[in-house]
Every structure is written in structure tokens, then in C-alpha cells.
Design brief:
The chain has about 100 residues and is mainly α. It is about 65% helix and about 0% strand.
Length: about 100
Amino acid sequence: MEKLKNIHPGEVLLEEFLNPMGISAYKLAKETAIPQTRISEIVKGRRRITADTALRFSKYFGTTPKFWLGLQDDFDLEEEQHLIFGELSNIKTLQYDAA
């Protein structure tokens, strides 16, 4: 079975919010007081969603900050798991008897 591509939060921002709502990155930047370069880098998948950005996006789009941070956390975990897969497979799960 082929593994699905890890989706960056910027792709979600573009495909699920900006494009369907007809909002440009420039407009989002102006209305959220986020530098346009930061928005552009997020959309291109080159920059993370920070707590500051999550708060601003949540206010603007009517979501929660945890939605945006959750997307970023999921992306980061998937990327890191891929990077250290070999090391993780060598770690044995603790067997603990709580008696």
C-alpha cells in the first residue's frame, strides 16, 4: 500500500480556506497583521504555524488556535517519524507490572 503525502498546514490553508473563500495571501496578511512573506512561506510549506499565527488565523477564520497548531503538530510528528524510523524501531516498549 502506498503511503500518502504528508500535508503541510500551508496546503490546508490554501486549499481549504483561501482558494474556496476567494481570499488572497495579501488580503489575509493585511487583515491579520501578519507579514505577507510569512503567509507566503506558510503556503509554500517552508514555514511553520506558530502560536502567534494560529491565534490570528483562528480569530480571522472563526476556528480555534488548536486547529492550526494541531495541523502543524501532526505534520511535524509525521516528518520526524519518517526521519528517525530506524532509531524508533530499535526502542523496546517498557513492560511494567503495576502490582
